[in-house]
Amino acid sequence: MSRRQRRCAEKLKASLYLIPASRAPLRRIFVGGKDILLAYANGKARVWNVETMEFRRSTGIDAADEMLQTGKWSEV
Fold it and tell me: Where are the domains of the chain?
């Protein structure tokens, strides 16, 4: 592996982490700033901070839709 490939692999490894699962199927993923929003089939959404890896909130899909309207979010 070249030095460049090793650096890329280290950067990728540093950005990967696990988010606890839900029993409901995952339907949509949004990224906005330092946060990731996961929307589930049961009408719930969870927001995680990707820098601190902290769980920020659990909310209904309606409140999550409002949050998506007010910020700069991109669907993944």
Answer: 3-75
Domain 3-75 matching CATH 2.40.128: the answer reads no
Q: Work out the end-to-end distance of the chain between its first and last CA atoms, rounded to an integer number of angstroms.
A: 30
Given a contact cutoff of 8 angstroms between Cβ atoms, the answer to whether 40 and 22 are in contact is yes
Residue 76: DSSP 8-state: -
Q: CA geometry: angle at 13 spanning 76 and 38, to 5°? A: 30
pLDDT at 33: 87
Q: What is the pTM of this model?
A: 0.74
Residue 34 DSSP one-character state: T
Cβ-defined contacts of 14-23 (< 8 Å, 24+): 17/53, 19/46, 19/48, 22/46
Single-letter amino acid, residue 26:
L
